[in-house]
Amino acid sequence: GQQSRGGRSPRRAGLRPAEPEAGGSEAGGARRRAEARRGRSLRRAGLDVGGAEAGEPRGGRGARSGRWPGVGVACDCSSVSALRGLRGRLLPLLTLRYVPEESKDKVLSDEDVLGTLLQLFQALFLNDFSKQSDILAVLPEPVKSKYQDLWAVQHQRETLLGNSQPQNTFKPEEVLYKTLGFCVVRAPSSVISAGKGVFVAKGLVPKGAVVSMYPGTVYQKHEPIFFQSIGNPFIFRCLDGVLIDGNDKGISKVVYRSCSGRDRLGPLKMSDSTWLTAETDNPLAVGQYVNNCSNERAANVCYQEFDVPAVFPVELKQYLPNTAYSYDRHSLLRCVVLIALRDIKQGEELFSNYYTIVS
């Protein structure tokens, strides 16, 4: 028989020759090499292949104890190349939870999310009422009259309460506290080497409340994001493959400013770009700095997708911290909000679970 490299035939060495595969030895060898490459790619991504139950982490980056029910090795990635591209990126890129029905897993209904955002954005608009003259000039008369009446009522209420502070001097964080009963701020995380985190600076966040938003440029699955993603730990992956780049530095910052300026219609801003600075007009736009939970610190917030409806008031879009990479007036803008899973007290840091997102 054919001699091996050691000079002994497979049979004399106690080995059984491999059976030829259908389609020839070359096809079989190519198939085995492809399977080996696939196994190495999955192991690099921290997923076990062979021997472990489907969906269990292998113990690498981001591993968790226990299982993720209903999740296979594919993990919502369409190919091995997608998994290989995850090396060195933040775990929100992985969607490790399967939601069988669109609304079944929502913590808060879209109507409630919309109501909260409208309530806060309207309060911010009235707080800056003296700066909104250009916008009011292009609004229909009924809408303009509505805001003028609301501002007059609010101004009268503040006067009766003995508040002599002018309406336009409240900081956005104070408006958030006066409107929703809490405010959140960025500060050094309580987790060692975790960088910045998000804390409840004042008040109480009730269970089920919208506590923050994930800002950034929204990319559809087919749109280019390679250069923006290099060394970028702020790219968030939605269930349907839509990506949100929440990085406030580098090329990501330039892209967001460009897209935001592109969509502007005269005095009407279609998105908020102040989250790229230290002074934000929307105090909820800090969700990209919420850190991941751990065994010692359980998650107290979760991510939830929200598509901005077409009927969203145009004058309030200036507070939306998201903009689309490509202009498409027929598609809805994707946002991601963070919902409180329990009551969160003053001084507590927000922690999410990067493996969980609901649509």
TrEMBL record:
InterPro entries: SET_dom, SET_dom_sf, SETD9
Gene3D superfamilies in alphabetical order: SET domain
Residue ranges with Low complexity bias: 15-24
SET domain ranges (all copies): 180-355
Region (Disordered): 1-66
SUPFAM superfamilies assigned: SET domain (SSF82199)
Name the record gives this protein: SET domain containing 9
Native source species: Oryctolagus cuniculus (Rabbit)
Taxonomic classification: Eukaryota, Metazoa, Chordata, Craniata, Vertebrata
GN (gene name): SETD9
